[in-house]
Each structure stands twice: as structure tokens, then as C-alpha cells.
Design brief:
Order of helices and strands of chain B: HHH
Largest interface: A-B, 37 and 32 residues
CATH architecture of one domain in chain A: 3-Layer(aba) Sandwich
CATH class of one domain in chain A: Alpha Beta
Radius of gyration of chain B: 13 Å
Largest sheet of chain B: none
Oligomer: heterodimer
Number of strands of chain B: 0
Shape of chain A: elongated
Largest sheet of chain A: 8 strands, mixed
Strand content of chain B: under 5%
Number of strands of chain A: 17
Shape of chain B: flat
Helix content of chain B: over 70%
Number of helices of chain B: 3
Distance between the termini of chain B: 37 Å
Radius of gyration of chain A: 36 Å
């Protein structure tokens, strides 16, 4: 998707019609739109989002006021007023014209707008030059740039860019969902989480109707477990959403603390420590899993070991006393005795001592099967000793890793507690209040986590019981072919679900690894410091310092590093999506790859010159189209200079303001002055194109 | 990515032919209705293909 043009009509601060054309040029792929804070830069970003998906960025105030307020105020009661966005974009050799409009019917005087549902029309013109209306426009747009991916390509300021790299479960889940969308793995998720569950229940119902009492009983049990799962899921989801709300509150407090100069450093240390703690928790979990695996694989040998020693000794003693079958086959001795000659040529006819001796050996020589069993037993017993030694080594290693993780957890928790105490003892009252509040939220979060754990456990138990019931159902010897067929259908649906779940895991993990490599590459080309980024197994973005396993630590990240990391991820995702474009995947999944533009509102606010330059240099190479929305102070200077050769068009959002005493302001671009703020009789925004010098 | 495809292929091979066929059909049906937020009738469609495969 490459934007060609946007036309805005009576949309929020924009009065009348405004138009921005985005030239398509591979070498000069950047468009800069200047505007002062509050003039309409974020509205312009929202214009894209609203046109495509009908929504606004999360922090938009009064999203219900879509129509320009002055136009609405001037309308008479009974009038109809319309706001609209027209978006022209190209995608995969097709040209699209999209128009979303909303009409308000003014029924009373006041600011509140009575709006109809917005209307979306999408026209497409193919290579043949013929235009046609798209029947399901929302679905078509979601195929071109899925809404779930829009979060990675439309950013509202540094805050949103930073949120992407926060170490929260929500951030990780968002990234994981984005990856799955690009890969087309949502099909599997929907199938396994919703549809196949219903299908299996449907087949169970069919089975029950066949009237077998045992199957009836099993199906009742299954229904009961299903009901339990539904109830538990409701409870679990409630707890999760409670915790998400608590996390947001904590995040808001952290942002406030970061903004207070006296405690900003402590807060930054805390951010890094919390990231370390998450890593230590994950390491502990991994180590515990390794312990489980070792015990699963070798655990039995610990109980056999003393017996194996006993067996080995017994074997050797019996052999020494010739009471054990010698490793000679009885049939071989029988042959010798029948022939009357030994293999050395000596005669072993009747009455010969040698023959008597051979007959004695024959008595103690076992049957072939017995001999073989003895030999196998003895050799396995010897192998057990090595296995036990291996097991001990592996156990020691896993325990060592687990202990290390526990120590690290403890250390980080102690440091975090110390920081919290320092903040609670701070001289500034606001800091103390914020920290006290934070402590309460953390406590609540921990309580919720514990309860969540109990819900998860009960859910797992119920799910296991269902699997067990399904197995019992499929094993049950029912009467008649119909039961057998119904059983096989349940089995096939259950097995397919398990297969698809495994595939989902494998594919997501594989792409995580590939994206991780691409992120590292992009980050190296932008970052000023020698840090190493990582897309962690929980799909969180993090940066580390130190290269070895032992001295590697989570780096304390500044806003600049967070933005660099986010942009590296966006660049990696864009290049990955582009590589998936037009690919049929492996024939099973519909990869929704494609070419995506990047729109960023106010990305340079708190970056110092070095980072401004680095980010500005990297942006044009990350995606095929970049639209930057910047204020005069952000856009001029280093950014402007660095991007000079990459910028095709510039626009200015002029703010007309009715505020008393406001002085006119100008922005100098290409040697001419353009109105930036204009004192006026009403407040609105308009877009002005910057001409060539 | 090639390793990943091999892994997926191995996962398929470990399953019975019926399961493989059912899984492929499910993905095909889900793909057809991917861009519908609430794909109507998909459960019936899946039930239908499983019934057709396992008679």
C-alpha cells in the first residue's frame, strides 16, 4: 500500500477541503507535514486511520466529534452536515479510491453531534483501466493492510513508539499477533481456539444420539467439563482485563515519575531492573522445564541403579562358577557331539574325557533365547551406570541454572524494593504519593496473578480431563458401525486441532528468530551505542549490553534507544512483510505480506541531535513511503538537513486561531515564508503546499 | 524458514492420512473466510468436510 493522495473535508479541526498529494518516487520517498502542536498533525494521522478502519488513536479526545466544530455550530437545527476523507492509494498494481463519510443531523443546539454510522465506499481500478466498486470494502482493506498491523505503521508520537518496546505482556502479545497476521496464522488460531472446539462438541452430540449408555455418561462428563471451562475462562478473562487496567495505571505512574527530574534516574533504573526480573523469571521457568525433561527421560534409572549393580555382580559370579549359561549355543555343542570330533580335530567319541567335559558344558549352556536375554540384561545393566552418571550431570546443570535464576530474581527484587523505599522516603510529596499508589497497584497485581494461576491450573485440568474423555470415547467398544464412524470423526477433529496448535507454535517461533536477525541488522545501522537488541521468546523487544552469556544485562534505555529499537522492529517487520508479498507461503497459509507505508507524528521531540540525525538517516530506507508529521522545532535543523535529498514534498498545516493576543507565526521553507499560525475570527486548520524555490 | 517448513512437514507426516486431510481442509475453509470477523457457517462447513472424509 502506497498513499497517493488524501482529501479531508470538514474533519475535526480541518474546515472546508484540504488535500495532500504524496508523490511516488522510490528515491525521494519522504513527505514532511509541518504543523504546530494542536494544529492538526495528530488529526491528519487519525484521518488515515478513520478512513481505513473507522477509528481513532487510543488517546483521542472526544472521538464522537468528527465534524468540524465550527461547521457544526453554524448549521441550523434540522440541517445535515457531512465530514469525509478520501484516500487514494495503490497496492499490487491496482489503484484504490476510498471514501469514508459521516453525516450529522443537527437536532438541537449544542456541541454534541448526532452522527449516523459512517459510510465506506471503495473503488478499485485494475491494470485494464476498468473501475469497479468493491463489495466488502472493510474486508478488502483488512486484506491490504490488516488493522492489527496498523499499530506498527501509524504512530502517534514518541509515546506510542516507546510503548511498543515496553516489557509488558500486552506489548509482547501485540507483536506476536502482528507476526501471526503477516504469516496468515490467524486461520489456525481461529480454527483451534473457536471453530474446532465447536466441531468436536457437535460430533460428541451426534455420538450421544446413538444411545449407548456408556457414551452417554462420558458425554455428560464432557459437557460438564466444557461448562466448567467456559466459567473459568470468563473468570480468567476478567482477571486479565483487571490486571491490564492495573498495568496501565502503573505505566502512567512510571511516566509521571520519569517526568520528575529528581527521580527520573531511579525510575529508569527500575525499568531496567524490571526487564531483568522478567528475564530471570523466564530463565527460571526454562531451567525448571529442563529439570522436568531430565527427570522424565532418565528418572527411572535412579531407582534401578542399585539393582543394576547387584545384577552385574551376580552375573559375573555365576559366570565364574560356571552356573550361568555360557555364551555358547547348545545347538553348537549338539552338532559337535553328533559328529564325534571337536573343532580342534580331537576325538570326542563315547568314553572320552573330552566328551564327558563337553556334555557337562552342554548342561549349563542355555537355550539361544535364554542366552540372548541374559546377555541383553547384563549389557543393559552396565549401560544403566553411564545413564545414571549422565542424569546426575544434567540434573546438576539444570539445578545450577535454576538456582542462578532464583538468585538473580532475589537480587533484582531486593534492588527494586530498595528503589521503591527510596521513592517512598523522598522529600517531594508528589513522589511519595505516586510511589505509595504504585505499591498498592503492584500488590493488587500480584494478588490477581496468584488467582490467575489458580484459574489456569483448573482450566488445564479440565482440558486434560476432556482429552481423557475423548480418548475413552474413541476407545469405547460401541455397537454398530455408526458409533465407530462418530468416534473416528471426533478423533480426526481432535488430532487436527492438536496438529494445528503445534504448527502455530513452530511457525511463530521460526519467524520470531528471523525477525530477530533483521532487527539486529537494522539496529546496528541506526544505534549510537553498542547495544544488542533482541526479540525475546515472549515477543518483547529488549536491548542488552555485554556480549557473553554471563556479562549480558538489560541495558538502561533512554527514549532515544527505545525509539531506535521500535523503528528497527518496524523496519524489520516491513522488510519481512515485503518478502512475504505475493508469496503463497507453503501453500497452506495465506501470508498477508505487502508493502506498507510509515506515518509518524512527532517522532523527534526528545531526541538529541545525534539520534535525530541517525533516525532521520534510517527512516527512508525502512519502508517504501514515509510521511512525517513534525513541528517547526522538530522538523527544521538536523532532521530537515539529513532528509534533504529524500524529501519530495512539504506541506504546512496552518492554524487559524481566534485566541486573543495570538501573534502571527511563519515557517520558512525553500526560501519562502508560509503561514504557521494566523490570528483569525474562528479556529480551524488548513493545509498549504510548499512550493519549489 | 526452510527448517520450519521441514518441521511442519514432519508434524504432518506423524499424523494419520485422515487427520492430514481434515487439517488441510480446515485451513482451506478458514482461509476462504479469513477476512470475515464472524465467519457465518464455518463450523457447519468443517463438520461437512470431516463427514465427507470419514464416512
Amino acid at each position: 500500500m502506497i498513499f497517493n493522495k488524501i482529501k479531508i473535508e470538514n474533519f475535526r479541526p480541518f474546515r472546508g477541503e484540504s488535500e495532500i498529494v504524496f508523490p511516488v518516487d522510490k528515491k525521494r520517498n519522504v513527505t514532511i507535514v509541518y504543523g504546530m502542536n494542536g494544529a492538526g498533525k495528530t488529526t491528519l494521522l487519525n484521518a488515515f486511520l478513520w478512513a481505513l478502519y473507522g477509528g481513532f488513536t487510543k488517546d483521542t479526545e472526544r472521538p464522537d466529534l468528527v465534524i468540524n466544530s465550527e461547521v457544526w455550530a453554524k448549521a441550523k437545527v434540522g440541517d445535515k452536515v457531512t465530514a469525509s476523507i478520501e484516500l487514494q492509494f495503490s497496492n499490487d498494481k491496482n489503484l484504490y479510491i476510498l471514501r469514508r463519510s459521516v453525516t450529522g443531523h443537527k437536532t438541537k443546539i449544542g456541541r454534541d453531534q448526532q452522527l449516523d454510522k459512517s459510510q465506506l465506499v471503495l473503488m478499485v481500478r485494475g491494470e485494464d483501466g476498468n473501475s469497479r466498486k468493491v463489495d466488502a470494502p472493510s474486508e478488502a482493506i483488512d486484506q491490504i493492510l490488516p488493522e492489527k498491523l496498523s499499530n506498527f505503521f501509524f504512530f502517534n508520537g514518541e509515546r506510542e513508539l516507546e510503548q511498543l518496546v515496553s516489557q509488558t505482556t500486552a506489548a509482547g502479545a501485540e507483536i506476536e499477533a502482528g507476526i501471526k497476521t503477516i504469516l496468515g496464522l490467524e486461520v489456525i488460531e481461529r480454527a483451534t481456539e473457536r471453530h474446532l472446539v465447536e466441531v468436536i462438541a457437535r460430533f460428541n452430540k451426534d455420538l450421544r444420539q446413538l444411545g449407548d449408555p456408556k457414551l452417554d455418561q462420558l458425554s455428560d462428563d464432557r459437557d460438564h467439563q466444557e461448562e466448567q471451562i467456559k466459567k473459568l475462562e470468563v473468570g480468567r478473562n476478567q482477571l486479565k482485563s483487571n490486571n491490564e487496567a492495573v498495568s496501565k495505571e502503573i505505566e502512567a505512574i512510571d511516566t509521571k515519575l520519569l517526568g520528575l527530574q529528581s527521580v527520573a534516574t531511579l525510575q529508569k533504573q527500575r525499568d531496567a531492573l524490571e526487564a531483568d526480573l522478567i528475564r530471570a523469571n523466564a530463565d527460571r521457568e526454562t531451567a525448571n522445564k529442563s529439570l522436568d525433561q531430565v527427570i522424565n527421560r532418565y528418572g527411572y534409572s535412579a531407582f534401578l541403579f542399585p539393582r543394576s549393580k547387584f545384577l552385574e555382580n551376580l552375573t559375573s559370579n555365576l559366570r565364574a562358577e560356571e552356573r550361568l549359561p555360557a555364551p555358547l549355543k547348545r545347538s553348537f555343542i549338539d552338532d559337535l557331539l553328533a559328529r564325534g570330533t571337536c573343532i580342534c580335530g580331537a576325538s570326542i567319541t563315547k568314553d572320552k574325557d573330552a566328551r564327558r567335559h563337553l556334555e557337562e558344558i552342554r548342561a549349563s549352556a542355555g537355550l539361544a533365547e535364554v542366552e540372548e536375554a541374559w546377555l541383553r540384561l547384563a549389557s543393559n545393566a552396565a549401560g544403566l551406570e553411564t545413564e545414571v552418571a549422565d542424569m546426575r550431570g544434567l540434573l546438576k546443570e539444570a539445578r545450577h541454572a535454576a538456582n542462578n535464576a532464583v538468585l538473580r530474581q532475589g537480587g533484582k527484587q531486593a534492588e527494586l524494593s530498595e528503589i521503591s523505599s527510596k521513592l517512598q522516603d523522598n522529600d517531594v510529596e508528589d513522589v511519595v504519593k505516586l510511589e505509595d499508589q504504585r505499591v498498592r497497584y503492584r500488590r493488587k497485581e500480584a494478588e490477581n496473578e496468584r488467582e490467575l494461576g489458580s484459574f489456569e491450573l483448573r482450566l488445564r485440568q479440565a482440558e486434560l480431563r476432556i482429552r481423557e474423555i475423548d480418548r475413552e470415547i474413541s476407545r469405547h467398544e460401541g455397537h454398530g458401525g455408526k458409533v465407530k464412524v462418530a468416534q473416528r470423526r471426533i478423533e480426526a477433529a481432535t488430532e487436527s486441532r492438536e496438529l494445528l496448535l503445534k504448527i502455530l507454535k513452530v511457525r511463530a517461533e521460526s519467524v520470531r528468530k528471523e525477525l530477530d536477525c533483521r532487527i539486529k541488522e537494522t539496529y546496528r545501522s541506526i544505534a549510537v551505542k553498542d547495544y544488542v537488541p533482541e526479540l525475546t521468546p515472549t515477543f518483547n523487544l529488549d536491548i542488552f549490553q555485554g556480549s557473553g552469556e554471563d556479562d549480558r544485562e538489560t541495558a538502561i534505555k533512554s527514549t532515544a534507544e527505545n525509539i531506535t529499537l521500535s523503528l528497527s522492529f518496524v523496519g524489520a517487520l516491513a522488510s519481512f512483510a515485503s518478502s512475504q508479498s505475493g508469496s503463497e507461503g507453503d501453500g497452506l497459509f495465506n501470508a498477508s505480506g505487502g508493502v506498507f507505508p510509515l506515518i509518524i507524528d512527532s517522532a523527534f521531540g526528545s531526541l538529541d541531535e545525534g539520534y535525530q540525525k541517525a533516525v532521520a538517516r534510517a527512516l527512508p530506507g525502512l519502508v517504501p513511503q514515509v510521511i512525517l508529521l513534525v513541528s517547526k522545532s522538530q522538523g527544521k535543523s538536523v532532521v530537515e538537513e539529513t532528509l534533504k535529498s529524500k524529501v519530495f514534498e512539504r506541506y504546512v498545516i496552518t492554524l487559524h486561531t481566534a485566541k486573543d493576543g495570538e501573534e502571527p507565526q511563519f515557517i520558512e521553507l525553500n526560501g519562502s515564508n508560509y503561514p504557521y499560525v494566523v490570528p483569525d475570527t474562528s479556529t480551524y486548520a488548513e493545509v498549504v503546499k510548499v512550493g519549489e524555490k | 524458514m526452510s527448517d520450519d517448513r521441514e518441521l511442519v512437514s514432519n508434524l504432518f507426516k506423524e499424523c494419520s492420512v485422515d487427520t492430514q486431510r481434515v487439517a488441510v481442509e480446515i485451513i482451506r475453509l478458514e482461509r476462504q473466510k479469513l477476512h470475515m470477523r464472524n465467519p457465518i457457517g464455518i463450523v457447519e462447513d468443517i463438520v461437512g468436510v470431516i463427514k465427507a472424509i470419514i464416512k
